[in-house]
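TL;DR need C-alpha cells for one chain.
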Amino acid sequence: MTKRDLFRLIIKIFGLYSGILTLFTVIPSNISNLVYQLDTIAILIILSTILIPIGLFLLLIFKTDVIINFLKLEKGFDEEQIVIGNLRNESILKLSIIIIGSFLILDYIPGLLFDIVNAFKSKGSAAPIEGTSVDYFGITIGIINIVLGYLLLTNYKSLATFFSKNE
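>> reply
TL;DR here they are.
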C-alpha cells in the first residue's frame, strides 16, 4: 500500500463517519429546532449547519486526491510503500464500516431503551420517570440509528466495494 492510498483511505473513513453523524445527529436536531422556532434567521442558520457538513462529507469522499495534494500529506516520508501486512484498501474499509456500524448500535441502544421504558411508564401511570419527559423524537432517531448500524454491519462488503471504486 502506498502512502497516498493510506491517506486516501483514512480521509474516506473519516468522511463516512462524519457523514453518518451529520445525517443522523445534526439534521434531526436542527429539524427539531425548526419546529420550535420558524423565522428567516433560524432557517438560514439551520440550512448552513446542514449544508456545510454535507458539503464536507462529499468533499472528503469524492475529492480525496485534491485534499491530499492541498495538504501535501505525501511529503516527508522516507519510503513510498507502507507495509501493513496483507491488508488491502477494501479490507480496511470493511473493518471501518463494521466499527462505525457497531458504534451506532452501541451508542443508541441505552438511550433508546430508556426512552421506551419512559414512554411505557408514562402511558401506564400518571407521570413518566421523575425529572424527564417522553421524547418520541429521540425514540425515532434511536431506532433509525440502530437500523442504520445494523444495515452497515450486514452490508459492509458492498459498501466497501462502492467506496473503493471511487478512488
